Amino acid sequence: MADELKDLKIELSKNGIFTTTLEELYNWGRKNSVWPLTFGLACCAIEMIATTMARYDLARFGAEVFRPSPRQADLIIVSGTVTKKMAPQVVRLYNQMPEPKYVIAMGACAISGGPFRDGYNVLKGIDRYIPVDVHIPGCPPRPEALIHAFMTLQKKIDEQALAGSTRPRHLQKDLPSEFPVPAFGEHGLEPPQNNDVFHEAAGNPLKVIQ
Amino acid sequence: MALPPVEELKAQIEAGVPGASATVIPNGSPSAQHSLLLDHAHARAVAEFLRNHNEWRLDYCTLVTGVDWPDTETSEKIKVKKLVKAADGTESEQEVDEVRKTKVPGYLEAVYHLFSMEKKHGQVVLRLRTRNRTDDTHVPSLTPVWRGAEFQEREAFDLYGIVFDGHPDLRRILMWDGFKDYPMRKDYVPPADEIPVVETHS
Predict the structure, then answer these.
(1) What is the pLDDT of residue A200?
(2) CA distances from A196 to A84, A162, A179, A200, B123 (A)
(3) Pairwise CB contact (< 8 Å): A186 & B190
(4) ipTM exceeds 0.85, yes or no
(5) Is B200's CB within 8 Å of A208's CB?
(6) How far is A112 from chain B (nearest CA, A)?
(7) What domains lie within chain B, and their CATH numbers?
């Protein structure tokens, strides 16, 4: 059915008639005006800043307005090493953002702990506590990689349904928009991961399943 | 005037600070950075002596760090005389090889690197050792002598568990207050639920 509609749309446009759906229009608007949070953690943040400047110009994708308040932001780019001491603050910032909200985990540290994975002080991936939409590998990823991640996110936003069972989290009333903030325990963060969010096989690149 | 060799330093410290004893810890590597191990009771007085000495003026402490020396076990083969029963039932005294194991208790160490801004020379390396790694991990603080040691002694306290007596503000500095472990010790094991399970094809 969807394909038939698409064909019909193309056919109509050939004859000078422009048609659209509310969903397409709505997502087209949303994906071209994503406001990221002014937030950086480590060296990846320098690449993120470079991405927004004249040479790479993230403004081409409608994401040049970095907001200094989580209340006005749609996207949090976790750019850099998340230490265990910093993790509760990152989760709290995410919780303070209004829906719909998206997360890009930028760089080896943010997706898995990176070179500090075997250390005592670094969180082994922010996807243990908040749902990540796009992961970018690299140490640090180049601005092109961040732009690619951003385009991937735009594609994801474009494909989100407004109705039906596949509609995203922010349109389902019973799904949470805030996630528990981990506490400082005697030996590490408690809990070590939020099992509602963290899917070990997907989030753990070291796990090889037989 | 340049700094004298470490043996000369030791002699002058012991002459200048009554009752103090310093032990030279030789460094066999090409850098030959020999160091001085101080006793707890006179460490503060020795530090002040080194800082105020007219010719040395070691007024700048660049580094404080911790070192963990775990318990070690040495084994040696010794010959012991023992009654041995032969196959025909007669007993005779014979020499038998036995392995004797000796446990050497470990300790924690605080290391200080000293330079002189005034005289433009250095470095002198001081060491302080705790009695063991478990219940007596105290050493005297040298922060009252070199104020710059404050945060670094806190770091050694945080990550190694060395307690600096006389430190003005001894709290954890990198990890949070409720943290119980000392992550830079050699026997530290991170929480089990964080270690990734790696299953491989056999």
Answers:
(1) 62
(2) 19, 23, 9, 11, 55
(3) no
(4) no
(5) yes
(6) 11
(7) 6-71+106-165 (3.30.460.80)
